[in-house]
């Protein structure tokens, strides 16, 4: 096992793997499962709109951890989305509240700006929250 890891490590360092939309959708639940503090993942979608390619997750959020759950979801989308064969234009997180009669909120964010925040660390979380995303209700 150690030999296999040592053999594959240089390959991973020099080339970023690129995954199809179906592969990304299949890998996203594992990303959420491996972190015990992750919100509950309810669904994953990849589709195209007039605005471009969209990578979307639906999560169930705890009202006391909404910002943390949103941050985790966007971190997951940016981390997974950077390995897509074709780049995404938008990342969307649908926040389903655990409070009865609370409608879901939709958080729509620009992919490039989100990647600059969560991957490249060029944009602060506060600036990302104010300038890169906006919310809608269903």
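^ structure tokens above, recovered residues below v
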């Amino acid at each position: 096992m150690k030999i296999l890891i040592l053999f594959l490590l240089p390959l991973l360092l020099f080339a970023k793997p690129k995954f199809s939309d179906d592969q990304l959708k299949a890998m996203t639940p594992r990303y959420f499962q491996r972190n015990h503090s992750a919100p509950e993942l309810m669904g994953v979608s990849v589709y195209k709109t007039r605005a471009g390619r969209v990578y979307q997750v639906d999560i169930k959020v705890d009202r006391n951890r909404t910002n943390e759950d949103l941050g985790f979801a966007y971190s997951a989308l940016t981390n997974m989305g950077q390995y897509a064969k074709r780049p995404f234009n938008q990342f969307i997180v649908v926040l389903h509240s655990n409070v009865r009669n609370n409608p879901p909120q939709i958080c729509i964010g620009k992919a490039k700006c989100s990647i600059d925040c969560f991957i490249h660390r060029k944009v602060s979380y506060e600036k990302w929250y104010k300038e890169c995303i906006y919310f809608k209700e269903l």
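The first strand starts at residue 40 and ends at 49.
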